[in-house]
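Issue 218. Parser rejects a valid record. Input:
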Amino acid sequence: MSDREGPQAVAPGRLRQMEIYVTGAGGKRPCVPVDAAALEAKAAHSMSAEAAAYIIGGAGGEATIAANRAAFDRHRFVPRVLRDISKRDLTIRLFGREHRAPFLLAPIGVLEMAHRKADLAVARAAASEGIGLVFSNQASVAMEECAAAMSEAPRWFQLYWSSDDEFVRSLLRRAENCGCEAIVLTLDTTLLGWRPRDLDLAYLPFLRGLGLAQYLSDPVFRSKIPLAPPETGFRPRGGKILATALSLKRKGRTFGLSMGRMRAAVAYFTATYSRPDLNWTDIERLRGMTKLPILLKGIRHPDDAAKAAALGVDGIVVSNHGGRQVDGEIAALDALPGVVAAAGNVPVLMDSGIRSGADMAKALALGARAVLVGRPYAYGLAIAGEAGVREVIRNMLGEFDLTLALCGLAAASDLGRDCLEQAAISRPSAAPD
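Output the parser choked on:
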């Protein structure tokens, strides 16, 4: 429902301000910080060292994370005045569905590291705020349980293409059956990036049974768990062996698997998770596996965008996985204009580095149809569970609405390059048109 058409008397930006300021007159403060840096800092304090490293960290020296933020900082709005911005229309349409605003919550794996309610809390928050959610392939709660909590709210499913095609088909069937409206195939994680924060802690959550709900709830995956884990040549060493065993036991109890079966399931996951030989012919095969629209996530080069468009994909997501895969690569925002130009009529979305409603507006001005917001909602989850996610959504929506209005625009669709300082767009560090 748009602000122009709906009964809502106050637009999201003013509504959020009023909520904070009026309740604050009694001394109440927001349950999560509004400032992006403070939000991350408080979330880091709320999580274990392992969780903070996994959720906040990136590849290598984290130059890509820094580049993502620098790209947003480099672009500047040029607001216009004396325009009627008394009503705003934030809505967009994607694949036949009207969305309340041009953003969805991005897929983030292993959210049980942030909060025990994990994906279920996020699903409830997204539905209550009318914002779409992309279910993670590496979720901590099965997609069916999350879908049941979302009523008619929009949901998509992120797919990591396993080396087991039968399992992939099972995931796609389940996504269709639980009301997902699109498949987001992630292309940039056919191998796990080099992540020093995790490596220094020698911590990978999947080896403890975390983030495997889509697998452990899947009948095809369960049918293929071997009787015993295969030999890898390595053995767990150190004082946390018992903690790992307890984690596997707890997770096994949730999914009706013994400790031995859990160890074998984890081993089978590690053996089949990645698909390094994934190539363009597989994209054509994927079309035969699902009736849902297909988006390719992780495209950064214009030539890849042109190839995707030629193959008839339904959408593209410009993303560098939030800086988690390749250290020193191009910022996602810098890659966006070139991909948009090469994609033709194929809708292009974007993620990586988005921390505010103003960031969302800049991405739309550079050609994105919508954005996926990731880490901020995970931080809200870590701090205050479902309520924290809801507040982050409200803050993002409120700032986006006010940014739009104060730039002299009445609709999300009005955002374009003329809203930004042209010098920033033409600098050599930006992707070519």
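Fixed in the parser; the record now loads. The chain has two domains: 12-200+275-426, 203-272.
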